[in-house]
Specification:
about 200 residues; mainly beta
């Protein structure tokens, strides 16, 4: 029970209870065309899908809510520490807002966490929304799902290192990869096709 913010380790008291506000720590990529995937990293996003809004300029007239990638389920695209969304049609340049199901939010214009603005462009990238399994030792099998992987094989990096194995490649799925020899820890998985790389998934 609390009555003031300074009574809470989180620095936030709401309706008599200490709460943990969502905090965005990284967004990648921060530019691109509608339909691209974007990954938002942070904490306290909640386990159930909330809403990510592209805020554009001042006022609400150009605010546009993002959707989750249809290629993957919500359990894969909305986690407490990571959210994947589709850049919506009509998204204007400006900050992002993430609001969880409790109604608490963070945006990339305040000083709580990451600060930065989305920049619309014509760049189309591969979109990655699921990596299976989510953890594995050296040599473990790995598969991925998403969009715009291309008809011809590109590359998959895990923690900056090329995935091993003979990749079975299609426009929406990749199989046959194996985990390279990496130090233990959380790392990014990225799909590249030509000169363009996907949003990271970790």
């Amino acid at each position: 029970v609390c009555t003031t913010n300074d009574q809470c380790a989180s620095g936030a008291c709401s309706s008599g209870q200490c709460v943990e506000y969502p905090t965005i720590t990284r967004v990648a990529p921060l530019d691109g065309a509608p339909g691209n995937f974007m990954t938002i990293f942070g904490r306290n996003f909640g386990s159930s899908p909330g809403v990510v809004t592209f805020l554009g300029g001042s006022g609400v007239t150009d605010d546009v809510a993002a959707s989750s990638p249809a290629a993957c389920g919500s359990a894969q695209t909305w986690r407490d520490d990571r959210v994947i969304v589709v850049v919506p049609q009509g998204a204007a340049g400006g900050p992002l807002n993430l609001t969880n199901t409790a109604g608490f939010y963070d945006d990339t214009a305040n000083t709580r966490g990451f600060q930065g603005n989305f920049t619309p462009s014509s760049t189309v990238r591969p979109g990655l929304c699921a990596v299976t399994p989510t953890e594995g030792a050296f040599g473990a099998a790995l598969s991925a799902a998403g969009v715009n992987f291309g008809a011809e094989a590109g590359s998959v990096t895990i923690g900056g290192e090329q995935a091993g194995g003979a990749l079975a490649w299609s426009a929406t799925t990749i199989g046959g990869g194996t985990v390279p020899n990496l130090a233990a820890g959380i790392v990014d998985v990225v799909v590249a096709q030509g000169s363009e790389s996907s949003n990271p998934v970790s």
